Amino acid sequence: MKLQFFGAARTVTGSKHLLTTDSGTRILLDCGLFQGINTDELNQNFGFDPASIDFLVLSHAHIDHTGLIPRLVRQGFTGPIYATPATADLCEIMLSDSAHIQEKDLKRINERRNRQGRPELELLYEQADVEQALRQFKTLDYGRLVWLTDDVSILFTDTAHLLGSAAISLTIREGGQEKRLFFSGDIGRPNDQILKRPEPFPQADYIICESTYGDRLHEPEPDMKAHLLQIVEDTCVRRGGKLIIPAFAVDRTQELIYALDQLESEGKLPRLPVYIDSPMAVKATQVMDDHDECFNPQILSYIKKDGSAFDFPNLHYISDVADSKAINDRPGACIIISSSGMAEAGRIKHHIKNNIEDSRNTILLVGYASPVTLGGALKRGDREVRIFGETFTVNAQVAIMDSFSAHADYREMLEFLACQDPAQVKTVYLVHGEYDKQLIWKQKLEAAGFQHVEIPSMREQVDL
Asked: Which Pfam families does this entry report, sorted A to Z (predicted)?
């Protein structure tokens, strides 16, 4: 049996791991898009024949784990795609959005390549490819064992990273023996505001483990709601300004809505309009509402008492472009939550552009932002930023809340792996992390008793 790493190898995007059994069955774990600078050609070529893949199994719906599925289908993959029901529903909206972005960005990318004297790229995929991919999905609930073939089974367990996120346990029968391979996907946090705790998983012989925050511990947030309320009161009540929050449309936006919903229910939220200005966030919130089987007991108890965790007076969901533009013309205090989370694209850039030079306003950053993005520039305290080719002075307040991270830190990842007997694990392969962080995570795993920890490079192949 062979395992080859075609993405998320010493980097954090493009998750793709190909398992080939001795009998020739080929199973692809995730099919993610490479994101960031200089990734165009990486997304064009898989490094393997898509038509040769028998099964695709997904850990969760984030684009760096699913964003190349339509291209896989476009290039000949016809097999089933296994995912949890919530992952399948999120993929429907996220892959459609990605197809729109691919079509929109291709012209800009090829204009740049023409200037550089490089050949143009072909379109990665279009909406028709998304629709075909969605027809190939097969949903699988947590805890239900399914045999893909007579020799290969899969089992999903909850990782609490995203609605529907799953770790994947595979059992492979070869040569009269059973080999147990585990893929962590992205590991969530044990005290998520909405999702259940990560679940233990069966003993494994081999583990493919993420390592995003293998070198850090999250800062404790004594009272997230109180911190958020303090920022709302300081901005909207004391200064009469607007609170602008760049937030990822899936998960992060819903966490913010839930926190504001609780504050409103407690009678603490000031009476002011709250706008969720993102068509994808609107759809994602509905998907989340439809999958309360993923929710923890605390939010379920809250919904039973309150009726909803994502709906309260003065909350407005905005999809129409004209309604979005009208928000900027509205005088007075308000809260605007819009994507993208790094403030690099989407409607949030327009809201920041229109409000960044007014000292009454606050831009609240609630998640990771790459240093090369607008969100990254604001997070590091740049006094001037470029938006749509213009330079703006940062007169608005910039606030930061890091308590919304969906990735476990190294202590939480060790807790997640505590269900394993390290002596029975032959090798741990580290993926989905920067190399310097993986080196530190490797040391911590070795200290915890895992004797063989490897950091595979791009396209490296190993024998299991």
From this structure: Beta-Casp (PF10996), Lactamase_B (PF00753), RMMBL (PF07521)
